[in-house]
Design goal:
The chain is an alpha+beta fold and about 90 residues long. Helix content is about 30%, strand content about 25%. It has helices at about 10-15, 30-40, 45-50, and strands spanning about 1-5, 20-25, 60-65, 65-70, 85. This is MoaD/ThiS family protein.
Length: about 90
């Protein structure tokens, strides 16, 4: 199945692009997408998404449609045609 991923902020810099359409297996969970697709595809994303102990960094923000989701959620199944936005927190004044 195909999903669209929009990268923003620091994640965009690490990915080297602002968006992509990715083909993933049916019933792919959000956690699988992060660990088995994005982290294996790109070392810069892996360094950003995973802590040194291999756990997912909880400061990464992921939205599936308009709904925020946890990157380590193995129960959140993605649907064909899903649109995700992945970013880091933005602060400033």
């Amino acid at each position: 199945m195909k999903i669209k991923i929009n990268y923003l902020a620091q994640v965009k810099n690490a990915a080297g692009l602002s968006e992509e359409v990715m083909t993933v297996e049916e019933n792919c969970s959000l956690k699988q997408l992060v660990t088995e697709y994005l982290c294996k595809k790109n070392k810069e994303l892996k360094d950003l998404f995973l802590k040194e102990n291999g756990e997912i960094n909880h400061s990464i923000l992921i939205f599936v449609g308009d709904e925020q989701a946890k990157a380590d959620d193995s129960t959140k199944q993605l649907d064909d045609g899903a649109e995700l936005t992945i970013m880091t927190p933005i602060a400033g004044g």
